[in-house]
Amino acid sequence: MDGLGRGGGLDPDRGPDRVSTIEVYQRVAEGYDRSRDQSLFEKPWLDRLLADVPPGGKVLDLGCGSGRPIGAYLAAQGYAVTGVDAAPAMLDLYARHVPEACVVLADMRDLALDARFDAIVGWGSFFHLDARDQRRTLPRIARHLAPGGRLLLTVGPSAGEAWGQVEGEAVYHASLAPEDYAALLAAAGAPVEAYVPEDPSCRGHSLLLARRPVADKGLAATDDA
């Protein structure tokens, strides 16, 4: 994803295929789990996400992968964690590494959980959707926020597309422009609190943090409109 907006490039003969991305993660799950950086460099941003989550609060780990280190960190803080992923092999690993979590096999594009969450994190996952799916899916995700709940996503530094690699296999990435994310989230009732492109303190990741106002009753989490 680091190449987005900086010449990462999308092969014009290859279109984004969400199914193939899921299949890649299904195939490489064990290797990904072994090679995933466990230093928890994400912690400062995770702590911002969790700053106002009450003890035992509900946290959604969206596109959760194998559960290490992020899911394990969330659970270690005493939160009620739900991990959602579309790759069954990843969910099996998540259940192994974060046994106290609830795991749900689902594509985030179809997210419709009967719950509201005090925090939602989509680290290294949401940006695998193409621009059209991001526009459709972001309001759906925001509807799952409880009043006062925050959403943290890794995105790109600017609008663009790129191919990256996971365990030697090609995977698609995309990002909208920051102002497009801001407009979508404002319309969904969860305005952007912070956006840092290529954060040098977070290994160059671009981070977006949004929050639903405390007094906002919002829409039903399962509303598909």
UniProtKB/TrEMBL annotation:
* Record key words, sorted: Methyltransferase, S-adenosyl-L-methionine, Transferase
Q: Which domain of life is it from?
A: Bacteria
GO biological process per UniProt: methylation
Q: Where are the transmembrane segments?
A: none
- A single Gene Ontology molecular function, please? methyltransferase activity
Q: Which InterPro entries match?
A: Methyltransf_25 (IPR041698), SAM-dependent_MTases_sf (IPR029063)
Q: Name one Pfam family in it.
A: Methyltransf_25
Q: Where is the Methyltransferase domain?
A: 59-149
Q: Where is the signal peptide?
A: none
Q: Which SUPFAM superfamilies match?
A: S-adenosyl-L-methionine-dependent methyltransferases
Q: What is this protein called?
A: Methyltransferase domain-containing protein
* High-level lineage: Bacteria, Pseudomonadati, Pseudomonadota, Alphaproteobacteria, Rhodobacterales
